[in-house]
Specification:
The complex is a heterodimer of chains A (516) and B (339).
Chain A lengths: L6 H7 L5 E10 L2 E11 L4 E5 L6 H8 L7 E6 L2 E3 L4 H6 L2 E4 L11 H5 L7 E2 L3 E2 L1 H14 L16 H14 L4 E5 L7 H16 L3 E5 L3 H7 L2 E6 L2 E7 L5 H9 L19 E9 L4 E8 L3 E5 L6 H8 L6 E6 L2 E2 L5 H6 L2 E4 L3 H5 L6 H5 L18 H14 L16 H14 L4 E5 L7 H16 L3 E5 L3 H7 L2 E6 L2 E7 L5 H8 L6
Parallel strand pairs in A: 3-10, 3-11, 6-9, 9-10, 15-20, 15-21, 18-19, 19-20
Antiparallel strand pairs in A: 1-2, 1-4, 4-5, 7-8, 11-12, 13-14, 13-16, 16-17, 21-22
Chain B lengths: L1 H7 L13 H28 L7 H26 L7 H18 L5 H26 L3 H20 L10 H8 L1 E2 L2 E2 H19 L1 H11 L1 H6 L6 H25 L9 H15 L9 H20 L4 H26 L1
Antiparallel strand pairs in B: 1-2
Helix pairs in contact in B: 2-13, 2-14, 3-8, 3-11, 3-12, 3-13, 4-5, 4-6, 4-11, 4-12, 5-6, 5-11, 7-11, 8-9, 12-13, 12-14, 13-14
Chain lengths: 516, 339
């Protein structure tokens, strides 16, 4: 391990870093989000900024983007102290942030998006000079490796990878020299990630500095020169990427409690009776999928995006049209919509908690009983809710899940991501669901919370439920699944169990290679 | 990395993370109780300035009587707004309700006033549910659907009535709805109280109300929780329409005439104002019955007080607008602060 922020190395090749943050402090009422943080970025480097949720990454980014003001501390660009007092100023200073969803307007054309900040050129001061605007956009698209993209197209018609690159082009249009990429790879497929990285490296050679924020640690080693880890609002250290490996990086991220990040949650007892039986599931993507899940086991369903894994979950929950036999505890069930699926004993823990899992303005209690209001009503006519019983049962389940909240009446949006996920799971415990469909349940949560969610998945299975698990991060299958079905092009191409489950074996099968 | 780690561990020592500061609490209190405080302030000011006229029990019931029709319509609208549905058809619905009840009763189509009220409200429920069908299954925004249906209703009443007001033949049993009294309490106030209690229990204490708040908060989450989301639009717009029709009938009973136009229009904007003022009260950002009641009272007190003080009508409109802006501003300010 090298000394963090060793000043000599940076001074060796150039006069000073492109961007430097010194002693940054940001206080919010009752909490300190940034605590004497130091960070520097050289021109031409890709620098990973890592940390668990709440470590202070987003606060630092917001301060650099001019969205918030630091309580104390300085920001320097090219060695000169600057005042990033608002987003316009940040842009003028050449600092640009590309967010997860690319901060593009889907309904507008590529040109309109790319030149949003710079402005569209005018003829005689009135009419937009579209020819020049599209020409300028083509130049920028060329620089990000999309020379063939038609700038007239609406952004919503582009693939996720193209959208990410258009967002970078938009940053370049405002002459950005520091580009902060906030989880840009979340919606990308493996091949697209590589393309993005190649373009990042090329632009870095032109002298642009990238700050790369991600939860996917493997990617860090593929593309980054240096790695800075934050914890509790402060600096843990900055390293050359070559001086760290995956495990040691995880140790730095989680700090003292290292063991938790490597803990496995696979079954300790053999599986019991079959709870879910699926035969010949077909749809626009699926081509006859058979699946069996027993009480006590966590069954993974893996595939490349759009090749079947997500589609199995959606079909079983009635969100996606499908045909085929679905049996829950031996009884054939129709699952043509979520209502029927819930009635059949299915439970969905969706990928996007806030958009699909919770009603953020309602209380923990109201969210928890959303699928089981029926069991608290007095009768089918007046339908009065028996609040007392509702409250005590919610309290019991939430205690079981060791939920940390400001009370059952506090609004669910005030909870942390992991606790929000517990409320979603609690909802299905109260409903006494038999089949849990976990769709990327750990999306955008930190190492600690991930472990907690894996533990919950395991205890659901141990308590007699069937758990079907899918994720975009293959490492997760290894840690939590007892069996993994790998799909390719809508068909099951292999089944892995126990020690056979590795990132490599899943990857190989999902690319359609039958032999492991 | 020793020095930086030592620094990094210090924030935990500063105290629990989610502690709220005094300024946050103040903003919270202001936004929750600001509307109630301004209601109290208005009453206090008017009482001080015109103690012999404003601060009398007779004027108290007078205010309640004046706001009762607005209140009934605004409470129904609140149910629709809980689900995020704007109901603009309530003006036409109120006019239609009042006119039809008078027409049927005066022509003897329906003999019993009670039956007439029930039939008109049932008809309104059906028309409202039709709005809901178009919204939920046709995928059209409630704003547009109810605007169109409201226009159709206005046209239908004008056509059916031949623009003639019904002046005679309305039975006393119907007029008592708008003119009767139970002790010192005017009948419209009794209707207001009943509607308020019923809808309060409906929204706060029943399974249906719970589902409506969930759908209004996040329809996708509600759907994925197994709630049959679509049919709730029928219920919400049906209730809104039924309340509008009831309000229209009380207007007709109060005036003793069945007017074919202009009855509901008076209440359209005020009912939205009352509901939005209510949504900034006690539970900011959430439409609820108690809030709407407070919003209605605030509008009633201001109108009554300004009239008593001899303020011109155009000022009354302006003051009402300013109060609505302040209320909505207070609510959105809090929501912004929380982000």
């Amino acid at each position: 391990m090298t000394t963090p922020n060793e000043p000599g190395r940076e001074a060796a090749s150039r006069p000073g870093p492109l961007l430097r943050v010194r002693d940054a402090v940001k206080d919010y009422p009752g909490t300190r989000a940034l605590d004497h943080m130091d960070f520097s970025l050289d021109a031409g480097e890709v620098h990973a900024l890592l940390g668990e949720n709440g470590a202070g990454k987003s606060t630092l980014i917001k301060a650099l983007a001019g969205a918030i003001q630091l309580t104390s501390g300085t920001v320097e660009i090219d060695g000169a102290q600057v005042d990033v007092r608002n987003p316009q100023r940040a842009q003028a200073l050449g600092v640009s942030v590309v967010h997860q969803h690319g901060n593009l307007v889907p309904e507008l054309s590529v040109t309109e998006n790319v030149l949003m900040v710079e402005g569209l050129g005018r003829r005689a001061g009135v009419l937009v000079d579209w020819r020049r605007a599209h020409g300028r956009t083509r130049e920028l698209l060329d620089r990000v490796g999309l020379p063939d993209l038609d700038p007239h197209r609406d952004v919503k018609s582009l693939g996720p990878h193209e959208q990410a690159m258009v967002a970078v082009a938009k940053a370049l249009a405002s002459n950005a020299r520091v580009i902060i990429l906030d989880e840009p790879t979340t919606s990308l497929q493996p091949g697209e990630v590589d393309t993005l990285f190649a373009q990042m490296r090329r632009l870095a050679q032109e002298g642009i500095g990238f700050v790369f924020v991600t939860h996917r640690l493997n990617e860090v080693f593929k593309v980054c020169d240096r790695i800075t880890v934050m914890r509790d609002g402060g600096l843990v250290g900055t390293w050359q990427a070559a001086d760290l490996d995956h495990d040691r990086l995880v140790d730095q991220l989680v700090g003292a409690e290292k063991a938790i990040a490597h803990e496995a949650f696979t079954a300790t007892a053999p599986p019991r009776e079959v709870v879910l039986e699926v035969r010949g599931l077909r749809g626009d993507v699926l081509r006859g999928v058979d699946l069996q899940a027993r009480a006590g086991e966590v069954v993974g369903v893996a595939s490349l995006p759009g090749e079947g894994a997500g589609e199995v979950v959606e079909s079983l929950y009635g969100i996606r049209r499908s045909q085929g036999e679905v049996l829950v505890e031996g009884t054939p069930r129709r699952v043509r919509n979520p209502q029927q699926a819930v009635a059949a004993g299915m439970a969905l823990v969706p990928r996007d908690r806030l958009a699909q899992g919770l009603v953020s303005e309602l209380s923990v209690r109201e969210n928890a009983t959303l699928a089981s209001t029926r069991s608290y009503r007095t009768d089918p006519v007046l339908r009065l809710m028996r609040r007392g019983r509702e409250r005590s049962e919610v309290a019991e389940v939430m205690a079981q899940l060791s939920l940390k909240s400001g009370g059952l009446e506090s609004e669910v949006r005030t909870l942390s991501g992991g606790n929000q996920q517990k409320v979603v799971i609690g909802r299905w415990l109260l409903r006494r669901a038999k089949v849990y469909l976990l769709d990327s349940p750990t999306a955008a949560v930190d190492v600690h919370t991930k472990a907690e969610i894996y533990g919950l998945a395991r205890s659901l299975a141990d308590n007699g439920a069937a758990v079907v698990f899918t994720s975009t991060e293959l490492e997760e299958f290894v840690r939590v699944c007892d069996r993994v079905l790998v799909l390719h092009d809508g068909e099951v191409v292999g089944e892995l169990a126990g020690d056979e489950i590795t990132v490599n074996s899943i990857m190989r099968l999902s690319f359609g290679r039958k032999s492991v | 990395m020793s020095s930086s780690t030592a620094v990094a561990e210090s924030p935990r020592a500063t105290g629990p993370r989610r502690e709220t500061s005094t300024s946050d609490k103040l903003i919270d209190v202001v936004s929750r109780y600001g509307t109630i405080a301004s209601l109290v302030a208005c009453i206090a000011i008017f009482s001080l300035m015109k103690p012999d006229v404003f601060a009398t029990s007779q004027n108290f019931f007078n205010i309640l009587n004046q706001v009762s029709i607005l209140g009934i319509i605004a409470l129904g609208l609140t149910v629709a707004l809980v689900q995020g549905l704007f109901d603009l058809s309530l003006a036409g619905m109120a006019t239609l309700g009042g006119f039809l009840a008078c027409k049927w009763l005066s022509e003897g189509t329906i003999g019993s006033p009670v039956l007439a009220v029930v039939v008109v409200m049932a008809l309104a429920l059906v028309i409202g549910a039709f709005n809901g069908v178009v919204v939920a299954y046709g995928g059209v925004s409630a704003f547009i659907v109810t605007l169109a249906v409201g226009s159709i209703l206005t046209g239908v009443v004008l056509g059916v009535s031949d623009s003639q007001t019904i002046l005679s033949g309305i039975p006393d049993g119907f007029l008592v709805m708008g003119q009767g009294e139970i002790g010192p309490v005017p009948a419209p106030v009794v209707f207001l109280a009943v509607v308020a209690v019923v809808l309060y229990v409906f929204l706060e204490q029943t399974q249906l109300g719970r589902h409506m708040y969930a759908i209004g908060g996040n329809a996708e989450t509600a759907r994925l929780s197994g709630i049959p989301v679509r049919r709730y639009a029928l219920l919400a717009l049906g209730i809104s329409a039924a309340c509008a029709a009831l309000g229209g009938m009380i207007v007709a009973a109060n005036l003793g005439v069945g007017r074919p136009q202009g009855v509901g229009d008076t209440y359209l904007l005020d009912s939205f104002a009352a509901a939005f003022i209510g949504a900034s009260t006690l539970r900011p950002g959430r439409f609820h019955i108690l809030g709407t009641v407070i919003g209605v009272l605030l509008i009633g007190v201001i109108n009554n007080g300004l009239s008593i003080m001899g303020v011109e009508t155009f000022w009354q409109y302006a003051v009402r607008g300013i109060i609505l802006l302040l209320a909505v501003f207070a609510a959105s300010f809090l929501v912004m602060r929380r982000r």
